[in-house]
UniProtKB/TrEMBL annotation:
The keyword Cell membrane applies. One of its GO terms (cellular component) is plasma membrane. GO terms for molecular function: GTP binding; GTPase activity; ribosome binding; translation elongation factor activity. SUPFAM superfamilies: EF-G C-terminal domain-like, P-loop containing nucleoside triphosphate hydrolases, Translation proteins. This is Elongation factor 4. It comes from Deinococcus wulumuqiensis. Residues 4-186 form the Tr-type G domain. It is an enzyme of class 3 (hydrolase).
């Protein structure tokens, strides 16, 4: 069996449970470069990713492991993104493996992401090797952590390996467990080609580079191939493996993990989850579970300086080259002028794109509050989807509105169950299950996605003193009694500030927005009214008080450095303002709906 000496696996864990550190240690042990060095040298992984300490793009690596008895193995370690926005990518990366190391921090125990990730592995029929990590910590309680895994996920506690990525304890045991417990990949190299795309990136010279797991068959340069879901044919230029970086090879055959360049120009044609097969000799069925990348959170992005419109469009096009999950289309706002409606996988994805536009492309942007996609049935029977509150129809035209729901899992110490349940109730959540895990509780709720988009995670963390963790998956659409709240500044509706909100919350949200706006809009020579309205009805009102003294008057003349700072601050602030008549509205005001307090 040609694949008997191959092991394809991944490491999954809750954020901060030590995935990167353990991966580094394994790489070091097997004579490869540390994960972080590798990232610096190979695929140009995002600077942001490093700064934020989360993995966004998965980069596989190929390692050689020689057992004490001299047997040599090839390990393909497939990294997975560490955030719920990218859970589909995680599930496809796992589909490329036969097993996983499931890490649990011995001082923290099972967390929400541990559970969700474990189920992704179970759904893919993977062998799970539980690893109780960070056992060097004084607060480590490996017994409890192992017991929790057994109770919550049903993974036998005695199979758990105890390890520390920091001190290196347990690394040899982990490597042996990979060989012994994870099965070699199945598949017939002579069968028609069937390869799963689990990631891709755009290279200016070679076009889209696909990261693939070959399930059946063999592929080499000059072969004609077909992307089954995209329905497009290509010719293979090069294939290879990761070692680290892209190493050109002769061929890829069943069981192997590697990369393919096939002159693919558009990343939309090469989506994660699609199946690559032979152009002339096709496999019977595509690999199951393909989902086209689908943005679920939308926000308007506008240049603060209208001159920058083209620059913004060019930048969006460049980012799009490398990101099939990101979408944009031109949009016009009465208030903000020409900009783009952009679609993202979640809030983190949105933040990453915005930060990249600002840092790498040097753009100053106004971003409107993120919104989900609503499905509206009109009284004339027509159904349309909208992710732009400004386009939401008036009430007399609406028969029914539906909004996306998620299944949310929260893991928390039992002391905080009361307040967290109350928070979930406020967010229109419906409890599905409640499981005790030692002194902790797992709550599963169905909640409207829009309710957790804004400040939910921060609120959850603050009321649980940082102890609660969460993860979620999309559920589909449900009916909701939703209204559009418009915001007026100086008696004019600013379309880009409109929000969609549940009927029970229009007053409280309207209040919050106008108060926040009155706080952040700079004072004028005259008082400026800020109002929240539904149709013609005013539901909340606040006033930006008239301007009194020069801002520098506060400085008593003497302190030059302070004066400078203040002026600089003003200048910076001004860069992110939009002028409405005589009133300047800063970026912060557009996100007033997101503010906590
Ligand atoms: P994401 O990439 O965000 O998912 O995080 P991660 O799971 O990769 O965690 P990472 O390896 O970055 O470690 C998180 C923190 O835990 C860091 O501060 C590490 O130094 C620390 N850490 C990781 N492994 C160990 C360990 O075995 N023992 C101790 N004491 N600390 C560890």
């Amino acid at each position: 069996n040609p694949t008997a000496r191959i092991r394809n696996f991944s490491i999954i864990a809750h954020v901060d449970h030590g995935k990167s550190t353990l991966a580094d240690r394994i790489l070091e042990k097997l004579g490869a470069m540390g994960e972080r060095d590798k990232r610096d040298q190979t695929l140009d992984t995002l600077e942001l990713e490093r700064e934020r300490g989360i993995t966004i793009k998965s980069t596989p690596i190929r390692l050689n492991y020689v057992r004490d008895n001299g047997e040599s193995y090839v390990f393909n370690l497939i990294d997975t993104p560490g955030h719920v926005d990218f859970n589909y990518e995680v599930s496809r990366s796992l589909a490329a493996c036969e097993g996983v190391l499931l890490l649990v921090d011995a001082s923290q125990g099972v967390e929400a992401q541990t559970i969700v990730n474990a189920y992704l592995a179970i759904d893919n029929n993977l062998e799970i090797i539980p690893v109780i990590n960070k056992i060097d910590l004084p607060a480590a309680d490996p017994e409890s952590a192992a017991r929790e895994l057994e109770e919550v996920i049903g993974i036998p506690a005695e199979g758990a390996v105890r390890a520390s990525g920091k001190s290196g304890i347990g690394i040899p045991e982990i490597l042996e467990a990979v060989v012994e417990r994870i099965p070699p990949p199945p598949g017939d190299p002579a069968a028609p080609l069937k390869a799963l795309i689990f990631d891709s990136f755009f290279d200016a010279y070679q076009g889209v580079i696909l990261f693939v797991r070959v399930l059946e068959g063999t592929m080499k340069a000059k072969d004609g191939v077909r992307l089954m879901n995209a329905g497009k044919n290509f010719e293979v230029d090069k294939v290879g493996t990761f070692s680290p970086g892209l190493v050109v090879g002769e061929e890829l055959s069943a069981g192997m993990v590697g990369w393919v360049a096939a002159g693919i120009k558009d990343i939309q044609d090469a989506q994660v989850g699609d199946t690559l097969t032979g152009r002339d000799r096709q496999t019977d069925e595509a690999f199951p579970g393909f989902k086209p990348a689908q943005p679920v959170v939308f926000s308007g992005l506008y240049p603060t300086d209208t001159e920058d419109y083209r620059k913004l469009r060019d930048a969006l096009e460049k980012l799009k080259l490398n990101d099939a999950a990101f979408s944009f289309e031109p949009e016009t706002s009465e208030a903000l002028g020409f900009g783009f409606r952009c679609g993202f996988l979640g809030l983190l994805h949105a933040e990453i794109i915005q930060e990249r536009l600002e840092r790498e492309y040097d753009l100053d942007l106004i971003a409107t509050a993120p919104a989900v996609v609503y499905r509206v049935t009109l009284t004339n029977g027509e159904i349309f989807e909208t992710q732009n509150p400004a386009e939401f129809p008036t009430r007399d035209r609406i028969e029914m509105v539906e909004e996306p729901y998620i299944k949310l899992s929260v893991m928390l110490p039992e002391d905080y169950v009361g307040p967290v349940m109350q928070l979930l109730q406020e967010r229109r959540g419906a409890m599905q299950t409640m499981n005790y895990v030692g002194k902790r509780v797992e709550l599963v709720y169905e909640v409207p996605f829009a309710e957790i988009l804004y400040d939910f995670h921060d609120r959850l963390k603050s009321i649980s003193r940082g102890y609660a963790s969460m993860d979620y998956e999309q559920l589909g659409y449900r009916e909701g009694d939703l209204r559009k709240v418009d915001i007026m500044v100086n008696n004019e509706v600013i379309d880009a500030l409109a929000v969609i909100v549940h009927e029970t919350k229009t007053y409280s949200l309207g209040r919050k927005i106008v108060d926040k706006m009155a706080e952040v809009i700079p004072r004028q020579m005259f008082p400026v009214p800020v109002q929240a309205v539904i149709g013609a009805k005013i539901i909340a009102r606040a006033t930006v008080k008239a301007y009194r003294k020069d801002v520098l008057a506060k400085c008593y003349g003497g302190d030059i450095s302070r004066k400078k700072k203040l002026l600089e601050k003003q200048k910076k602030g001004r860069a992110r303002m939009k002028q409405f008549g005589t009133v300047e509205v800063p970026q912060e005001a557009f996100l007033a709906v997101l503010s906590t307090e």
